[in-house]
Amino acid sequence: MSVNTETAASQYRNLDTLKTSEILSALWEGQMRAVEAVRPALDALEPAVEAAVDRLSGSCGRLIYVGAGSSGVISLLDSLELGPTFDWPENRLAIVIPSGTDLTGGLADDLEDSGAGSAGQIETLGITSQDVVIGVSASGGVVFTVEGVRKARELGALTIGFTNNADTRLGAVAHHSVVAETGAEVIAGATRLAAGTSQKALFNLFSTTVMTRLGGIYDNLMVNVRPKNAKLRNRCVAMVMQISHVSEQEATEAVHKFGTVKRAVLGLAGVPEKQIDSRLKEANGVLRKSLQTEDNQE
Question: What amino acid positions are annotated as catalytic residues?
């Protein structure tokens, strides 16, 4: 029998009387159950990833997040990491949360019950059939999220719902419903805890797998990382060394000359510089495919 995330867990009703070590242990147990709850959701997550890759493999499709409260913040965090890590273009990314992305004034919890707010933002974005919209709600019933996803589906977008309860309104309006049943929280209703942990894990799995399938990873290396600081520039050099089997000096010179890991690797493989970008475009940005093309032409 499913246990709702809002249910009070009877075994923790004396939480405030426990010693610090016992409170920590209780919270840790809740976190471990949250991670374990993600495993059964993988079967539903797989087709959602495949469908998202199909929509996003072109040059125009956007990844759009819809959420409120803690769930909205977690979705915002995932969206902010896609550019630096996978070089996902900012113009192919949008976040729809009640407060907007400026959270200095709080989360605007009073707007969670307004479906018009999210539906209006979705309409303003000019949703098309190439877009992917992910709604996230622990309860699966937050009006802001449900109505945003509903509107996106009406406009032709692929819609995905992440929830922590089964048989929810969000799950019903989304093309793909992914449920991590985390059950009652250690602190009743505090869904930033177990539910939030499971949502972060789901986003990690979803977006990383999507970006891997779209060419953001070679072997298990982040070949699309943006070299914005010394640490990341060093990482780019190390990746080029590993992929191209060259010295640190050669890799450093290649990264400096070509600008990115992928372009450096192709340059070191002998692709003329003026052909590198077209080669990558033909391979939909997938480095392995670009290198295989080079091999076939030799």
Answer: 81, 112
